[in-house]
Write a structure and sequence with these properties.
6 helices, single chain, alpha+beta
Length: 200
């Protein structure tokens, strides 16, 4: 029977969800779920009577959930589900099943949080995860880290070095500001997809 002595997550932040203590093992995950490597989808397996306290819940699960896709999208688009009152993210469980251990954080390389194919997932730390982010929706220049100075009309370029926001200079043209930002991003290890168009 699955361990029932689990601490429920209460209003976790994104970072807290990523860093939460692992509560199921790879062995248990592989018994509970089936993973389709072509689509990146995770599905519930049928479960034995020993996983449940009574026949009614056992039959209800296998009738309603077995063979169905796991997870519902959060407001950020990541698929999330609950197991014995504990929240899990599908992409982290996929990583656990594939590699046998919980990752620190998982980055969706193409920026699509619903694309959980293994070739779209990479283990990263929090800093690297932040360096593959979509462009902010309130950005008016069309390029992350670039803004126009009202007083001078010049283009200002800036970037985060992980601790501070670094001003890269003010430029006469947008192209010059973009070149400065791209050069700094390359030095600092930003992913090529960083600053992509945000999803609608």
């Amino acid at each position: 029977m699955l361990d029932t002595s689990r601490r429920a997550l209460t209003k976790p932040t994104c970072k807290e969800v990523e860093m939460a203590d692992p509560l199921i093992t790879a062995e248990i995950a592989r018994r509970l779920f089936s993973y389709d490597a072509k689509t990146g989808k995770l599905y519930w397996n049928s479960r034995p009577r020993s996983d449940f306290g009574d026949d009614r819940h056992w039959r209800a699960f296998n009738t309603k959930s077995a063979g169905k896709e796991v997870g519902s999208p959060t407001k950020w688009g990541h698929l999330r589900f609950r197991l014995r009152k504990t929240g899990y993210q599908v992409h982290r469980v996929v990583w656990l099943m594939a590699y046998g251990e919980w990752p620190e954080q998982v980055d969706h390389i193409d920026g699509n949080p619903d694309n959980n194919r293994l070739d779209n997932l990479r283990e990263v730390n929090h800093l690297l995860n932040c360096r593959n982010a979509a462009r902010r929706k309130d950005n008016t220049s069309g390029v992350t880290g670039i803004s126009r100075t009202r007083r001078s009309g010049r283009w200002s370029a800036a970037i985060s070095d992980g601790k501070n926001r670094v001003h890269l200079g003010d430029y006469r043209t947008l192209e010059e500001a973009i070149a400065a930002r791209e050069a700094a991003a390359k030095v600092l290890g930003y992913h090529a997809n960083h600053g992509r168009q945000p999803s609608s």
